């Protein structure tokens, strides 16, 4: 695994509770909230976590500010978003050679209320006691990845996503 750097949890919590919605700010192209984008269309966006605990840690969110995992979506909207999450998760799995993909929807009404899904790729060889929620703990530090390293990871995932989309198009022609 890459080197880690300390994470200022207190500052993060304060910004989460008192700052603007980070996803809405990212979508509005606020320079203070830029992330490495993996996928974007008129309805959704997928991007690398700015403070990852795992290489390739990705978030997927609807562009429209919605707060409830199921209640704010029609069935068709929800299924369309889940299809994107599936493709992005598979792209992350392939690009990162992940042993396992963790998929979570986190946040609360008090902070990070814009619904989003976390796609966390567990690399091979992580000891069992350091897996699952333990590997996601930012309190233990976040990966110290340069902007160039983050851009390269985003490019690898984007490339795999394009392969998956071509595969789906090819299989739809039968």
**CATH architect. name:** 2-Layer Sandwich
Our count of helices gives 4
Q: How many domains comprise the coordinates?
A: 1
The 3D shape can be described as: globular
- Find the CATH superfamily: HIT-like
Core attributes:
single chain, 174 residues, alpha+beta, HIT family, subunit A, five-stranded antiparallel sheet, two-stranded antiparallel sheet, 4 helices, 37% helix
Summarize the structure.
By secondary structure, the chain is of the alpha+beta class. It is built from 4 helices and 7 strands.
Tell me what the structure shows:
This protein has 174 residues and is of the alpha+beta class. The chain has one domain (9-172): HIT-like (HIT family, subunit A). The protein is 37% helix and 17% strand. It has four helices and seven strands, in the order E-H-H-E-E-E-H-E-E-E-H. The strands form two sheets. A five-stranded antiparallel beta sheet has the order 2-3-4-6-5. It starts with a strand and ends with a helix.
List the helices and strands and how they pair.
Blueprint: E1 4-5, H1 9-18, H2 22-27, E2 37-40, E3 44-48, E4 58-62, H3 75-96, E5 100-105, E6 117-122, E7 142-143, H4 147-172
Antiparallel strand pairs: 1-7, 2-3, 3-4, 4-6, 5-6
Helix pairs in contact: 3-4
